[in-house]
């Protein structure tokens, strides 16, 4: 089983920055894709950014040039650097990790979510 622990959310003014972290732990053989999703009140969960095992990245159009996803494979951790934040970025942010456990099949795991609020 894989556990994900997120941190870094909070309240920030428009134009500000936040950095989210998500650390994976457990009986992990390998980690494949790592991603960040968000869900605003009354809206569907959407993928914000994804980074593959080879480091290639993909972003939602709404966050391109403002957010940067990265990973530290030695720490089994994925980050989301969020700059130039806007009120419409307000949401609960979730990390998602595809991993292969020791002796198991690939599985998808979700973090508990961290609130990001952008408001003056």
Question: What does this 3D model show about the protein?
Answer:
With 120 residues, the protein is mainly beta. Helices cover 0% and strands 59% of the residues. It has strands at 2-7, 10-12, 18-26, 28-39, 46-51, 57-59, 67-72, 77-82, 91-101, 107-110, 114-118. The strands form 2 sheets. Strands 2, 4, 5, 6, 9, 10 and 11 form a 7-stranded mixed sheet that branches. Strand 4 and strand 5 form a beta hairpin. The radius of gyration is 14 Å and the shape is elongated. The mean pLDDT is 96.
Number of helices: 0
Described by the principal axes of the CA atoms, the overall outline is elongated
Please state roughly what percent of the residues sit in beta strands, choosing from under 5%, 5-15%, 15-25%, 25-35%, 35-45% or over 45%.
over 45%
Query: What is the mean pLDDT?
Result: 96
Spell out the blueprint of helices and strands.
Layout: E1 2-7, E2 10-12, E3 18-26, E4 28-39, E5 46-51, E6 57-59, E7 67-72, E8 77-82, E9 91-101, E10 107-110, E11 114-118
Parallel strand pairs: 2-11
Antiparallel strand pairs: 1-3, 3-8, 4-5, 4-9, 5-6, 7-8, 9-10, 9-11
């Amino acid at each position: 089983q894989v556990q994900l622990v997120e941190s870094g959310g909070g309240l920030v003014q428009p134009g500000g920055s936040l950095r989210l972290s998500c650390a994976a732990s457990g009986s992990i053989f390998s980690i494949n894709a790592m991603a960040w999703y968000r869900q605003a009140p009354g809206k569907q969960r959407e993928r914000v950014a994804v980074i593959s095992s080879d480091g290639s990245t993909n972003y939602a159009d709404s966050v391109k040039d403002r957010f940067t996803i990265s990973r530290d494979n030695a720490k089994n951790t994925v980050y989301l650097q969020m700059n130039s934040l806007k009120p419409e970025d307000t949401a609960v942010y979730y990390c998602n990790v595809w991993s292969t456990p020791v002796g198991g099949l690939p599985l998808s795991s979700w973090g508990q979510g961290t609130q990001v609020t952008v408001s003056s």
